[in-house]
């Protein structure tokens, strides 16, 4: 019986266990917990990998940043220290000296190339669970400084105010140092420098003038009266005709026609002196520095015209002119491909614009007085002027004839029917004759007898053309000596001064300056500007002209040398090449 009971109990327990196992096998209430734990572990691993990657990227970025800064500094041609030492010093200060792998230096006369590599091993905190114990952060950088193809226009103010406060003297030192700094660090034929001295106008040398199409009223000097639309472009045309500036002096009281030798007016708007004519694409430092030494200051200020020529000498539109000048030996053969096109990535184009002032009036002669015969006649032998007035309607010469020419003779303040030297005139002369004689035949008493004689005028008179009149006689002298004595003063000045010359005012010239600066910057020309003790209005124009605020320099006294030096360094700005 007991045995049967045990057998029955075991059989029951066995059945119960089978029922429990079957129930457990069908129970799904704990499945989500397991899945959640698994997903949490996966998310933790992924987040950990992100942390590892962020740490890796942070280290790599710091390494690359240090490399870039180090090679940039080391490649600086002005850097007196060893390029290798400079790179290592940067890594020491950044606490990364253990990671610097290599430093390579390649340098020559006008260039320095510095390359460096670095590598850092970053231990992982989470990725090691996937079998990745470390990540390798590597970096490489290369910097190069060289003077390759550089075209520079130095646009320098030489107006009268530059005589003040030793400005011209300080400018000469700064500009010559700039030339040395550029050429000392360049290979021959790589840097071309044009110098554009400007005052009321910009004078053009004959060799370049020959390549232009201009009006031909005279050949005393060579300047162009640009139209307003010309300032909207960086280029200059070799085909379109430009109006030539007349050679005239609107300021002084001077006549050089009666001097021995004869003299042109002393303060012309456009100057014929070779030391005022712009230098075009040169690289001979001795010639350039000698030219700067000979600069002098006089005249008004035309920043717009200086800037127009500065851009024109960087524009490829003048390339045919440069080719012709090379053939004539006026430009070095090294510059046969210049000015380069604006899309030439191997050429840097730079303008350095400097002034101590602001735009002032630019004078020019009105159309009716630019060519042809004037009403002034000149007797060269006797150095005497005659002024043709018209027909003698009121018989000014008192000869009873009205249908004849009427001339005023300034030297005698008289009216005649011809220019002095072109005829005869009657002159009353006093002659002493003896009234009674002594026995010995000597005269006891004299009497004066008036006689009228015909006098042949010496020399000959020729009419003076307008270009010749203005070239030797200032406008003021012409008014005061040839017209004012017989005309009403106001009428003389209105007819023969204010109606003869005109001007472009400062406001218009400011607009033109901004326009040509915008045209230059639109072509990616780098514009540096220097306000050398300039007034606020002048500085405002220079700031607008500069490529950026950092390209503008406001300097006083000897600081101008610092500005030119800084510009030279900027032109040699370093570039990351890798």
Mean pLDDT: 88
The biggest sheet, with number of strands, parallel, antiparallel or mixed sense and barrel status, is: 6 strands, mixed
Domain unit count: 3
The CATH topology of the largest domain comes to Rossmann fold
The CATH architecture of the largest domain can be given as 3-Layer(aba) Sandwich
Query: Which stretches are poorly predicted, pLDDT < 50 over at least 5 residues?
Result: none
Report the principal-axis shape: elongated
Number of helices: 14
* Helix/sheet category: alpha+beta
The Cα radius of gyration reads 44 Å
Helix content: 25-40%
Proportion in β-strands: 25-35%
Strand neighbour order, sheet with most strands: 8-5-4-9-19-20
Give the distance, in angstroms, between the N- and C-terminal Cα atoms. 99 Å
Topology:
Blueprint: H1 2-25, H2 31-75, H3 83-93, E1 100-108, E2 111-123, E3 134-146, E4 149-157, H4 167-184, E5 191-198, H5 206-209, E6 224-225, E7 243-244, E8 279-282, H6 285-293, H7 303-312, H8 319-327, E9 347-355, E10 362-365, E11 373-379, E12 384-391, E13 405-409, E14 414-416, E15 424-437, E16 443-456, E17 461-465, H9 466-472, H10 475-483, H11 489-498, E18 501-504, H12 506-522, E19 526-532, H13 536-545, E20 552-555, H14 559-571, E21 575-576
Parallel strand pairs: 4-5, 4-9, 9-19, 19-20
Antiparallel strand pairs: 1-2, 2-3, 3-21, 5-8, 6-7, 10-18, 11-12, 11-17, 12-13, 13-14, 15-16
């Amino acid at each position: 019986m007991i045995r049967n009971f045990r057998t029955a109990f075991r059989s029951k327990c066995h059945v119960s266990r089978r029922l429990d196992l079957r129930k457990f096998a069908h129970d799904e209430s704990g499945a989500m917990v397991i899945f959640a734990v698994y997903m949490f572990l996966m998310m933790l691993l992924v987040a950990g990998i992100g942390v590892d990657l962020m740490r890796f990227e942070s280290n790599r970025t710091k390494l690359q940043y240090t490399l870039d800064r180090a090679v940039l500094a080391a490649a600086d041609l002005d850097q007196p220290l060893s390029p290798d030492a400079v790179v290592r010093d940067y890594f020491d200060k950044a606490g990364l000296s253990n990671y610097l792998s290599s430093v390579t230096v390649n340098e020559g006369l006008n260039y320095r190339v510095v390359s460096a590599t670095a590598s850092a091993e970053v231990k992982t905190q989470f990725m090691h669970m996937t079998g990745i114990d470390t990540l390798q952060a590597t970096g490489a950088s290369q910097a190069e400084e060289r003077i390759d193809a550089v075209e520079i226009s130095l646009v320098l103010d030489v107006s009268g105010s530059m005589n003040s406060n030793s400005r011209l003297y300080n400018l000469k030192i700064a500009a010559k140092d700039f030339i040395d700094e550029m050429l000392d660090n360049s290979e021959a034929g790589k840097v071309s420098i044009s110098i554009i001295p400007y005052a009321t106008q910009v004078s053009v040398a004959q060799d370049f003038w020959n390549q232009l199409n201009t009006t031909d009223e005279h050949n005393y000097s060579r300047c162009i009266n640009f139209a307003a639309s010309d300032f909207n472009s960086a280029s200059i045309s070799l085909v379109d005709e430009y109006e030539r500036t007349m050679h005239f002096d609107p300021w002084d009281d001077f006549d050089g026609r009666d001097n021995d030798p004869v003299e042109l007016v002393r303060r012309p708007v456009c100057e014929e002196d070779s030391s005022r004519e712009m230098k075009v694409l040169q690289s001979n430092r001795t010639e350039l520095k000698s030219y700067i030494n000979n600069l002098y200051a006089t005249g008004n200020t035309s920043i717009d015209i200086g800037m127009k020529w500065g851009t024109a000498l960087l524009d490829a539109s003048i390339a045919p002119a440069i080719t012709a000048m090379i053939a004539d030996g006026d430009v070095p053969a090294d510059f046969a491909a210049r000015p380069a096109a604006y899309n030439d990535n191997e050429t840097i184009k730079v303008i350095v614009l400097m002034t101590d002032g602001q735009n002032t009036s630019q004078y020019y002669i009105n159309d009716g007085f630019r060519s042809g015969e004037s009403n002034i006649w000149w007797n060269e032998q006797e150095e005497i002027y005659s002024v043709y007035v018209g027909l003698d309607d009121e018989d000014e010469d008192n000869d009873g004839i009205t249908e004849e020419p009427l001339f005023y003779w300034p030297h005698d303040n008289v009216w005649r029917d011809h220019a002095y030297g072109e005829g005869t005139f009657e002159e009353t002369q006093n002659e002493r004759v003896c009234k009674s004689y002594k026995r010995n035949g000597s005269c006891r008493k004299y009497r004066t007898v008036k006689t009228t004689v015909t006098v042949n005028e010496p020399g000959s008179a020729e009419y003076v053309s307008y270009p010749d009149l203005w070239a030797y006689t200032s406008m003021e002298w012409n008014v005061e000596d040839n017209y004012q004595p017989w005309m009403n003063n106001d009428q003389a000045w209105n007819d023969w001064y204010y109606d003869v010359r005109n001007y472009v005012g400062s406001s218009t010239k400011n607009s033109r300056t901004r326009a040509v600066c915008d045209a230059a910057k639109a072509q990616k020309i780098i514009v540096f500007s220097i306000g050398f003790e300039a007034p606020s209005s002048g500085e405002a124009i220079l700031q607008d002209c500069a490529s950026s605020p950092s390209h503008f320099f406001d300097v006083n006294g000897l600081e101008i040398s610092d500005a030119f030096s800084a510009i030279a360094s900027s032109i040699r700005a370093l570039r990351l090449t890798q």
